[in-house]
Amino acid sequence: MTSPAVSITVADAVWEQIKSSRSASDDHLSMIVCSSLPRSSLHFLFGRNLERATRIVDQGGVRKVSAAPSGRSFFLVVGESKRKEEYICFPEHHCTCYSFFYDVVNRGEHLCCKHQIAARLAEAVGEVVEVEVSDEQLATMLSKL
């Protein structure tokens, strides 16, 4: 079994490839086999969470909130439930959704939640809606966590 650290390193490399080309190819998104050796891909690493994340991105459900003048930022990612809740997301570290705490932190079954994947994917392919706020507004938003 591949260690989480190796999986995260592989995922980071794939995210960088996507970001540099500003598009996600089928090779990035699906399990591929080349020369009889499996190559890691986002689908192999994230499974159904990747499918859910792509739906969120396709529906325009990712906003990046950036503060001026500090440049600090986080993402607001819409959930898939009927309530369309927005989760505060730091793609490489944290999400306020239940799945992050239950599946990622508590049980360790996933590397990250679908909202973290959606934020990274949307930013990598340029499908994120940019929102600028003041540093004070950002602090107020984060204080409600």
Automatic annotation (TrEMBL):
Please give the GO cellular component terms listed in this UniProt entry.
Shu complex
Q: Name one GO biological process term.
A: double-strand break repair via homologous recombination
Q: Which residues form the SWIM-type domain?
A: 75-124
Q: Which UniProt keywords apply?
A: Metal-binding, Zinc, Zinc-finger
Annotated GO molecular function terms are: zinc ion binding
Q: From the Swiss-Prot or TrEMBL record, give the protein name.
A: SWIM-type domain-containing protein
What organism does the UniProt record list as the source?
Answer: Ensete ventricosum (Abyssinian banana)
